[in-house]
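Problem 3 from the worked examples.
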Amino acid sequence: MNIVRKLVGWILPLLILGAAIAGFMALGSQKPPPRRAVEAPAAVAVRTTPIQQMEGRIEIDADGVVVPLREVTLAAEVPGRLLRKCESCRAGQFVKAGSVLFEIDPRDYQLDVQRLEGEVRQAALNIEEIDEELAQNATSAELSQRQVDLARREVARLDNLKANRIVTETEHERALRDELTATNALTMLQGQKRVLTKRRGRFTEAQALASTMLERAKLDLSRTRVVAPVDGVVVDDKVEQDSFVAKGTPLVTLEDTSAVEVKTSLRMDELSQVWGGRAANGDGLGAHDLPDAPARVVFTLGDRSYEWDGILSRQEGRGLDEKTRTLPCRALVTKPANVKAIDRYGATMATLPPEAPRSLLRGMFVDVLVQVDVPQPLVSVPQEAVRPSGEMFVMRDDKLVIMHPRPFHAGGGLIAFKEADSGLLPTDRVVTSQLANPREGMQLVEAAP
């Protein structure tokens, strides 16, 4: 019985293994299934759009913030007590040029003006007195000269008579004494004239000095009224009425609202486009100057936009920002109150809506659209036609052409290329729909609308 069990334990596995090998051989000997003929691929339907020719002007879009053109800090030019402060001289109030903002007590300065006017009049009277003395001196000198001439003729006549012993020595000496007396009187008058002339010069200098001091006193008196030099908004008022202020004490800070600037930054490729459009209006520019390219400043509020006209006026600072690698620039808006409202469709509205801003305000975040003239012709395609990898699918003669043109400018939903360098043809159409497994030369067909 044990022997039978052992035989069955050896033979049964061998039988199972043999059956498995026979089955495997039977399956492996089957014929392969017949191959089906592969059909030629059909043309892929895609949506396309034609190549568009662009005008010779592009717009560079940059972010910006409105900053004041200048801030003017008015200080006291003379010391004194503030008698009056204008009601509109408060932070946030608008003041017009020429408005009196502060008035300093003028009484001390009025007294100085009166005193110096008296000194000027006194100096004028002294000069008139000297002029009268000079006139009297001239008359006396003329008479004295005549007297000297008479005395000399008398001495000459007596000299001849003395030689003939007609007159005595005493009479001759008397004539000489008269001549000496007349000459001495003339000399004294001439010396007096020189003294009077010098005195007149001194009084003239005193009059000029008094006049200069009078002008200074009048200037100080005028400085007791502090007026607004420009139309603007009061940013900060620092003193109150009845306060005493010293010379140089800041009184108020005004923001000039006649014009504003927009602080923005441009990349180097955008700067190269600005410089490239310099030929039309860039003659005579310096190494660090920017051409006065026109710009549009746009502020968006809800579904409406508001627009101002400006120019790209100058660069700010000495070069590129080290962190952003952009060049800080300023756009100048000369008329910040001339605002145009743009509706959601891009059309200019005839009238401003009630909620529209009446002017560009400090701190507004805006878009700066710099308009640059491009001398070479450009072509453009929709932005969605260029893949993230930079590839552009073009349908040319119903076949796919994969291109890698270098973009020249992107903005407004379009990407522009230089026509001469892009390799695009006027008859090409760019694929705007998604394309699975694109291959160069694959058949394409325009999709039904």
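Problem 4, a separate protein:
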Amino acid sequence: MGGEIQETRPAVILSNNAANTALNRIIVVPLTSQTARVYPGEALVTLIGESRKAMTDQITTAAKQRLRNKIGVLSFADMTSIEDAVLLQLGIRRRP
């Protein structure tokens, strides 16, 4: 509906390992291959050698049953970029 994602796509799991183990759902940031424009609150990452955009404005909860296969692992730098984008998207400032 509206700007919500309607298709199956790769995503980065944001929720912590303890929650992932205990709950039947996870928190994810969807990825897209549409990288021509990157807005504030989005992050460019590399997944299996391809440029992707993490859409932190689309953070969502998904049932574990919807997971398919693990297709890769992001670098520390890419995860830091996503973390920065999430904080910006949510209006959270890091403490000095």
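Solution to problem 4. The chain has one domain: 11-90. The mean pLDDT is 92.
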